Amino acid sequence: MTVPLSWYLIFATALFSLGFFGVLSRRNAVAVLMGVELMLNAVNVNLVAFWRYLTPTDLSGQIFVVFVFTVAAAEAAVGLALMISIYRTRKTINVEEINALKH
Amino acid sequence: MDLLRSSVLSLIVFLPVVGSIIVALMPKEKEDLIKKFAIWWSLIPLLLTIWVAIDYAMNFMHGNQMAYQVKLAWIPSIGVNYHVGADGLSVPLLFLTALLTTLGLYYSARVIRKRVKEFFLLFLLLSTGMFGVFVSLDLILFYVFWEIGLVPMYFLIGIWGNPKDRPQYAAIKFFLYTLAGSIFMLLAMIGVYLSTGTFDILQAAQTGVWTNAPMFATLSFWAFFIAFAIKVPSFPFHTWLPDAHTAAPTAGSVILAGVLLKLGAYGILRVLLSLFPGQFAQFGWIVAALGVIGIVYGAFVSLAQTDLKRLIAYSSVSHMGYIMLGIGAVAVALNMKGTEGAAESAAMAFNGASLQMFMHGIITGALFFLVGVVYERAHTRDLKVFGGLSAVVPVYYATMMFAGFASLGLPGLAGFWAEFFTFRGAFGIVPWLAVIGVIGIVITAAYILYRIIQSLFLGEYDPKRWTHWTTVFGEHADGPTDMALFEKVTLWPLVILMIILGLWPTPLLMYFNEAATNILSNLHF
Amino acid sequence: MSESIFNLTWLIPLPTALAFFAIILFANPKKRLSSKIAVGGVIIAWILSWAVAIMFFVNPEFTEQPFDLAVPWIPMGNIVFHMGVAVDAVTAGMLFMVGFVLTMIFIYSTGYMSFPGHLDPEKYPDAAKEGLDPRYSRFFAYISLFATGMLGLVVADNLLMLFIFWEIMGLCSYLLIGFWFDKSYPDPKQITPKAAGLKAFLTTRVGDVLFMMGLIFLFIHAGDLNFQNIFANQEFLHELSTTTVNLPFFGAVTWAGLISMLIFWGAIGKSAQFPLHVWLPDAMEGPTPVSALIHAATMVSAGVYLIVRMSPLFSAAAHGGSGVMMFVAFIGAFTALFAATIAVAQKDIKKVLAYSTISQLGYMFAALGIGAWVAAIIHLLIHAFFKSLLFMGSGSVIHGVHHGHEHAHAHGHGEGGHEEYFDPQDMFNMGGLLKRMPITGWTFIIGGASLSAFPLITAGFWSKDEILAHAWADGHMAVYWTLAAGAFLTAFYTFRQIFLTFFGSPRTEAAEHAPESVRSMTWPLVALAFFALFGGFVAVPVDFPVVGGLASDFLAKLMEMQGEFYGLHVAPARFDWTPALISMTLALSGIVVAWLVYGWKPLKAKQSDPLRRWLGPVYTVLENKYYFDELYYFIAVRPTLWLASFFYLFDRGVIDRIVNWVGAFNRWLARTLRRWIDEYIIDGAVNGVGLVTTWTGAVVRLIQTGQAQNYLLILLLSVVILLLLIPFGS
């Protein structure tokens, strides 16, 4: 007996929603970033699942995952650096207070 | 040789632009340098046109095709080409343009004192427009050059015009009037394109324009005609001319009368005659009638003038009437194909009209220079204050006599042949109109002799009547001084041409005759 | 040999043309040199003319195929027009006369053109010191060009070239008549030289324009204008005289008739025939040698020469039933009498001669009109000799009287007093001059006798008699009697002039002190007097009693032979006593009447013309030339000037105003458009777009919180909405 594809998809959906909820609801910018990581990883799960079940001969699914990892790492690095920079100037990392775009 | 032949027309057309760019780069304080440069530079096109004339006479006579053709794609998407070429009609007119441009620049170098740099720049630019029209074989190219000539002339009249003569009014009148005409022309050109799919004059002539839609053909014909008639100017579109001529600086009047007016007549012969022969044949009598009205009316109005320059301006209206009469006669003759003698008369009328284009250029050019000569000294052109100058300024008198008698068509001087050929053609085709036109000859004699010669030169010289004499260089003088060397150098080439062509017009006529026989044979005469 | 001399024909007009250019370009400041160049030029032309003419006279066989030398000159469509020179009997005769008379006039001019009386010597100190006209050089340049015009006209082998030289002469006549352009008279009504020149040019121009029309029609029909080609072609002439053209008022006329009529109008203008005669008397305002040039040797005879040349066409027209020959005869005869009557009442010595010229030209045209072209050309030649003699003689008289006036003025009463205007040309200021000026006087009398056709011994008798004999023999009685009456008047006014001028006692101090003229002026008079007496023997009819056998009448024979070539058959008029006696009687009685009135009891100073008493108002009418000047002023000059002003007003007031209205209308339209369409519609639309944008912005900016999480929420909502819409999409 094998695990059907839909299980993976349901799992990934849950993970994505969890991450997205985190992004929308958390005030702490670090937490928002963590939400984003969750969303990315949900996509990764999807990609790997589709590769395994639909096109096992084609490597592109796996390669995409590797790319996403890389980008996520870079994103986290840049994001955290921005956080620190914002914290230094504004003494806060509460996203509700960071509304400079409005002005 | 082949390289020169393929590039010579483009050189003639664009060298003046290059010259005006160089002038633009010169510092404006160096007036002498600018003047010298402009004059010498303008000699290059002059020499090239002479070369073209000789080369054409030796190698292209009886070729029955456009010589020196160059055809390059310009705006390929709508089939506009840079297509230039010259035939017997354009070669002498190119020479005339170059000659009058050089003489005009040379003369202006001594009498233009304000904004020298701009003047010479614009003058060079002006000649490009005129050269361009005479070589264009593509309608859009023709139109572009046609309009290029307008702008410098507008400024020449407006800026350097005599402040007493409302130069701004004259300039704007000239500009708008011509522009109004050319709008019609542009529309008609687009019509030609829609009908034939090309802007090329030669191709369109072969295909025939609006052959299946006579209504459009007629409309296009009149649209073109109005544009050309305004430029000629033909009665009743002539009223911009006296104002513009009177207000323009001397060299500007010379170019205006000598060349710019010819563009209209040239356009009629080059474009209307080849593109719309059918309509032209139908309405030719109107053209001829307008010509006759112009001859007589212009002559009478000249007789009523007391301003020397305005008189000569109106005399241009009269003289351009001969051209219209000749062209109209050619057109009417298209209806008479096969009638005995019609082809011969048509060729004569064509020759007459084209001769008049050239002869009027040199004669009226000289007359306007002569007006300049007296105006620079007396600072008035009112004929009533002069008298008896013949005793004081004999050289000026002699020069004016040559130009004046050439203008009234005295045999032995240039003007006669134009009149003779025109009337020879017109009498064979539209005799009744010609009979009326003949009245103009008598009145012409009257205004030249009675108004110009008698008022200026004859009678007793009374220095008290007009005391504000200066020399041509603006220094105070006790009375009129005779022509200075530079004025002689300007005028005598024209006088010599008048005499030589008056005795033996063949060197000029062979080009026109070639064009006449070709164009008429292309119309299946 | 002879052929090669004819090859020189084309050179004949050249020396004087070169002299013209040499003088105006180089020799102008040197007066004496200029006159030498001019005289040298004309002498060469004279020698060449005589060489050609005499060669023709001694070889009459050339009449069968006249000489013609033409070169291709002008391309005209598919044909090439040839210009060239031709010599036939008529040309030879003309060359003989023109070359000689021109030379005499040139030599005479060197003496005549002294410092003129109307100029102030202080204004022209150099010229006054030399005693020459300040524009001496210019004068010789002009007459050289004039000579070129005449010589070129005579040798031209085609009508176009003839026309060109014809017009050049017109130009020169304008320049020369108005030569003293700064002269004015105390009487404002008296015509000044400048006005006279203008009048001459414009009047002849009217004729010339008609001539040019005729020329053009001939050209259209013949395709060529060469005299020999056209006129030796009988078929062409026949065709021309049978095809017709419809004209308004005249109905159908033959082309030959129309063309010859138009060309004849050219001759009417140039030869001053009625009704275009008005310019010639006023042309006397020019210096006297000019009058001799214009009225004797050149310009006026050009008109006659033209019609002689065109005779084949005229006779073809007559054969075709056209009345043009009758018209010519009528104009000629009428003018002959008409001008003679005016001449009777003139007091200006030159005006009398001017009207006599018009009258004599009338004789020639009358002769041409009745077909006697040989008689016309012979009278033309002989008239040229005696008329130039008379003109130059009158010039000599005027000169003498003028000097006499100056002399009297300097030695008598002139000091400081107000100077009255003195007219040295008024015959009533003269009298008794024969004693003071014997050479001038006697030569003038010879010329006058010749003009009056004094029987047997003068040339004028033979040539005029020829015309009258033709008129009689061919049955043109009206012409004959008109001309005979003219002959009586001619003799009368000529001898009136002679008696008033040369006989009796001097009526003014000026006449009393008049000196004889210088030699350069007198000996041309003597040379011309020779021809005025004996030139006529070339025209003595062969069957005339006694003298008929002496001369062979060779010129007339030569002309008749030449006529054969052109298809003109002129039988020589047989000599008839009746007309000869009538004309002799009339001429002699004219002289006798003149003697009775003026010679028997010479007039005293200040005495008025006895004719005025006898003729009353008729005399006033004659004196005023039948008021033709006034008439033309009212029917031609005034309307022309009026029309000119009217057209100018029309131009400014109507045509130009329309143009300006169009401009003004456009400006009005522009303003209106700016006000209404611009402000409310175009501007309204632009502003409207702006308003809408502002309002939308105000609304939309509410969702721009700057909170990234809000944006994401909107994103989520949007995606949800899109997902919900999917079922509707398909």
Q: Write down the secondary-structure element order of chain B.
A: HHEEHHHHHHHHHHHHHHHHHH
Side by side, the strands of the main sheet of chain C go 1-2
For the biggest sheet of chain B, the summary is: 2 strands, antiparallel
Kindly, what is the distance between the CA atoms of the first and last residues of chain C, rounded to a whole number of angstroms?
118 Å
Helix-strand category of chain B: mainly alpha
What is the number of helical segments of chain C per DSSP (H or I, 4+ residues)?
A: 30
Residue stretches of chain B low in confidence (pLDDT < 50, at least 5 long) are none
- Indicate the mean pLDDT of chain C: 85
**First-last Cα distance of chain B:** 35 Å
Biggest interface, chains and residues, is: B-C, 61 and 52 residues
Instruction: List how many beta strands of chain B DSSP finds.
Output: 2
Oligomer: heterotrimer
Query: Helix count of chain B?
Result: 20
| Helicity range of chain C | over 70%
Beta-strand portion of chain B reads under 5%
Q: Which structural class matches the secondary elements of chain C?
A: mainly alpha
- Rg measurement of chain C, Å: 37 Å
Which of globular, elongated, flat, extended, rod-shaped describes the shape of chain C?
elongated
Low-pLDDT stretches of chain C are 413-418
Question: Rg of chain B, please?
Answer: 22 Å
Number of strands of chain C: 4
List the helices and strands and how they pair.
The complex is a heterotrimer of chains A (103), B (525) and C (730).
Chain A lengths: L4 H21 L3 H25 L6 H31 L13
Helix pairs in contact in A: 1-2, 2-3
Chain B lengths: L1 H24 L5 H30 L6 E9 L4 E7 L3 H22 L4 H20 L3 H10 L1 H11 L6 H30 L4 H7 L6 H18 L8 H8 L2 H26 L1 H27 L4 H27 L7 H37 L10 H4 L1 H14 L6 H16 L1 H27 L27 H19 L2 H17 L3
Antiparallel strand pairs in B: 1-2
Helix pairs in contact in B: 1-2, 1-4, 2-3, 2-4, 3-4, 3-11, 3-14, 3-19, 4-5, 4-6, 4-11, 5-7, 6-7, 7-9, 7-10, 8-11, 9-11, 10-11, 10-13, 11-13, 11-14, 12-13, 12-18, 13-14, 13-17, 13-18, 14-16, 14-17, 14-19, 14-20, 16-18, 16-19, 17-18, 17-19
Chain C lengths: L1 H5 L7 H14 L3 H28 L8 E10 L2 E9 L1 H24 L12 H6 L5 H20 L3 H19 L15 H30 L4 H5 L2 H9 L1 E4 L3 E4 H16 L8 H4 L5 H10 L1 H11 L1 H9 L4 H21 L4 H21 L3 H39 L21 H4 L1 H14 L7 H15 L3 H26 L6 H5 L5 H16 L19 H12 L11 H23 L10 H6 L1 H7 L4 H73 L7 H22 L1
Antiparallel strand pairs in C: 1-2, 3-4
Helix pairs in contact in C: 2-3, 2-6, 3-4, 3-6, 4-6, 4-13, 4-18, 4-24, 6-7, 7-8, 8-11, 10-15, 11-14, 11-15, 13-18, 14-17, 14-18, 16-17, 16-22, 17-18, 17-21, 17-22, 18-20, 18-21, 18-24, 20-22, 20-24, 21-22, 21-26, 22-26
